Fold this sequence. Notes:
Number of helices: 6
Number of domains: 2
CATH superfamily of the largest domain: RRM (RNA recognition motif) domain
Helix content: 40-55%
Structural class: alpha+beta
CATH class of the largest domain: Alpha Beta
Strand order of the largest sheet: 2-3-1-6
Oligomer: single chain
Strand content: 5-15%
Largest sheet: 4 strands, antiparallel
Distance between the termini: 61 Å
Amino acid sequence: MKDCEINTKEQLKQYLKTLLVKQELVLHKKLIKSISDELQVSVLDCAAAMSLLNYPQLSSAEKNNKVDKVALPRQKLVRYRLDIGRKHLVSIEDIKATLIEVAGVDKRGIGKLDIRNYYSLVDLPDGMPADIFQLLADEEINQRKLNIKRVKYQSRFHRRNKK
C-alpha cells in the first residue's frame, strides 16, 4: 500500500498492522523516544505529530469527531532585572531586540517584560548558559549597561489573597 492511497482512518489502521508485524521498528522506536525526550513531550504526542506530518488529510476528517488538541508544555521562565528603565529612554522593542540579537533568545521565549522607572524586569527561559548572561551584563542600550541579574522568588509578592 502506498502513502498516497491512505485517506481514511481504517486504511491507516490496516497499513499500521502490516508495519507492526515487521521487526525493523527498533531503530524507529529509539528515534521517536529520543525526539520526544528532547522536545519534552510524550511519545504518543510525538507519534501523533509524525502521523499528522505524513497524513494531513486525516486531520480534516477527524475534525468532525472533535479530537482534542494536544498542548505543548510551557517552558519554565525565570525573572531577571535589567539596570535600565523608563528614565533611560528605553523601549520594550529595544530590550527585546537586544535579547534576541545578543542572547539568541527566541522572540516567543521572552516572557513578561515590565519597564519601571530605573530598571526593567523580564522573564526568560530557564537554563540559559552563564556566558550569555555575561554578554548581556556587558551589553549597552542608550549608553547604559544592562547588568542583568536573576531576581530571587519572594512569596510575599505573589498571590497575596491566597487562603
